[in-house]
């Protein structure tokens, strides 16, 4: 109880509230701009929060991402361009509603059900994270090794990309994590006698390169494309929401719980949650033929799902230090920078911090209602911000942000290299998220692997000797086998004669 | 612009071999079976395996070695594309001697004019954003942004 009061004190501090307010506006803007993603918003926010205490730093990230995932729905409905990948699943459906003259209802549903889904995700986070932490406190290197394996495997398994390319990206990320002084023997690996590389590959500069610079390179090619006329929401956004809720409350609950479950899986986040819940909604609908023609049913499922996934993605991140998606991967990086290694011990040593995160999540979802209303009403102005000015400004943020992470040009050089690499990867259909998760988890994976090998003295069966480790190991190996079998089956079919 | 799977696989196979070769210089410690080269070698083997699958798949499919999208042959759009990494490179090269404020201003102005912003808008926006970013990072957050030629003024 004491910790909860402390958390209230930490969150309801004028500075923290101001940070939350500003991040909310930033998140709304980034989410509503097509081409700027929630992950990019987070990567650009980190340098800004670098010098803040943990609570406002985490508050900024939580608030900005919550807003961005909702705001991505706005251009989806108005321009048929999803603002973030998490809105891509139902952008066509939303746009069809707009063409039927139901923009107000569509936006109202998106806003209200985003808030609802978000709150359900947070409720699950609050209920389960401390419970899991109690279990996790007894974990040994075996359990952590398997958890990291499982998380990384899920990242490849859940992405829609070719598994071979997913694993390629993952191995590359893990390899990048080995650059620098080896944690066990103190030997510098892959540093080429460069002082900067001794400290390892800076994670945030890499993120900014991969998620922002490569996106800018893609955007630069189409910057002078003419912007379409923007539809405008006028009138009451909340009219008819009650009716939608009475009719589709089951969809709302189903979407939220699917989203929560997928978000909590390591490696899968809001965008996958939206795709899956939209598909589930269509599969179990009484009128699946109406999907795609501007029906609100699938939107209810998917818009609840992507916001609920956001909260539950923090469960594995806070409890095990294993990220649920790219955004929580950044969060873990931030926690390490603040000297608070995520894991079950945080729940015992710094419970006020955990409670603060919970409170900020609730707060962020609540202020989304009025702020989202403002964003929808001023969408025409937001979407008219010229991209030919925005692009250079974002590039400047990237440059300064990555400079600030290392206080030297090393960060900028790294950002540039990673930006080009990220662009090449995307061109070849190699997903970026596994690389990022690999980079974050590499050290943990190597340490627990080597520790476990030494403990087991080369006996691999020892990796399964503890009950939870055994279950996790079997699950991981099963997924590997499924992927292998799938790859073999797909191989000959994919090759045209 | 994308390479076919065979070429990509061949390059990655070479990369994996190079990583493995580098790990052979890592020291081994007597009495310690699992040294600093163990984990990187597993990863190099993993990359090599993936590369091999890509290589075989590519040889079977016989796609053109290099596929080029339409915008690459349009000089204006190709320049737009190259300007993003180019601007970052320019920042790396000149920000130390020139200082953050002039570099950032010229970079913003140059890019937005190239992307056909009106000068009457581009000028104040570039100046304003440069000063805002400088105030926030150098003033508020104490990031040592290079002062360059303005050293005596700031």
From TrEMBL, chain B:
Record's keyword terms, sorted: Membrane, Transmembrane, Transmembrane helix
Recorded superkingdom: Bacteria
Domain spans labelled DUF1468: 7-146
Nucleotide-binding in keyword set: no
Pfam families, per database record: TctB
InterPro entries from the UniProt entry: DUF1468 (IPR009936)
Signal sequence interval, chain numbering: none
Transmembrane feature ranges: 7-26, 38-59, 71-92, 98-115, 122-141
Keyword Membrane attributed: yes
Name of the molecule in the record: Tripartite tricarboxylate transporter TctB family protein
Species this protein is from: Falsiroseomonas oleicola
